[in-house]
Input
Amino acid sequence: MLFPAFVIEIHVFLTCTSLSFRGPLFSIFSDERMRFTCGRAGQMYGTCCTEMDVWESNKMATAVTPHTCTCDGQTRCTGIQCGDDASGNRENGVCDKDGSDFNPFRLGDKSFFGPGANFSVDSSQSFTVVTQWVTSDKTDAGDLTEIRRHYVQNGKTIPTRPVSVGGQTYDSVTDDFTRAQKTLFNDTNGYAKRGGMKRMGDVLDRGVVLVMSLWADYAVHMLWLDSDYPTDQPTSKPGVARGTCATTSGVPSDLINNSPDSQVVYSNIRWGPIGSTTPPGPNPPAPPGPNPPPPFPPNPPPPPGPNPPPPPSGCPGGNLAACIALCPSNPPDAYKACVADCVKRCD
Output
């Protein structure tokens, strides 16, 4: 899967995804997410690689986050190379653990994404996530300069709203945005230190693996996505408030025990050059020609017929059949639950 001058489009349905479970979709250079694995003679090693978090989200918050590394491909690391948090070396590893995150809530737009009709993107309904990787010359030969995001829900295109960061306005991830965001939040710009957008583009251009998952955070309970984090900082400090979840939420044992049926459905995944995944608009009208003479005698207009019923409110796909078509076929329990939800929403 190659990305520069590229778009990936994913239909998402966050069915019963509860607070602080995260349904991420990301791309990595190797076949492993950064995590600890057991090495020879029982020694612990780390596995590091560049990661493009296309979709980090639950129903309460969302972010798109590229992470760069100085290493090429999947790399085994030890000690400081791993950016070990416990030893105070988070910023000293080969990879940028924080990344350049674009979370609308964290950036001040608190009504953009969430459950309910009062949000621009209603996460209680299904929607399509469209992510574009834009290069300097708009071709695969150029350097990656920008990562853009918009949504499609109920037939309406919803662009990422511009946010003010450090006196400038941004609606996408760029090197300038990252620099302004890190300065405003008083965070280290590890993304730029490890090559920034160009480095990310170089890795994506070599090809990456698309990974879909649903997971809970045993380290900090996903507070970095949907709550106030760090928890010892005031929420008035820029960058601390990231979502509306309580700082006591997200404990994995609670989530597993209380929300065992949480799931996320990814479907209709499409990718290709920018513009190739979006259906074309209506054909332009034909140029005007001479008016034909009216028929004689004039034909009477047809009697008006009944108006078609409007699609049910909150029904993914607009009708029951289309909603069921979005349901995953496996596992059977997930399909059964999805169909029941469709019947409830669309019947």
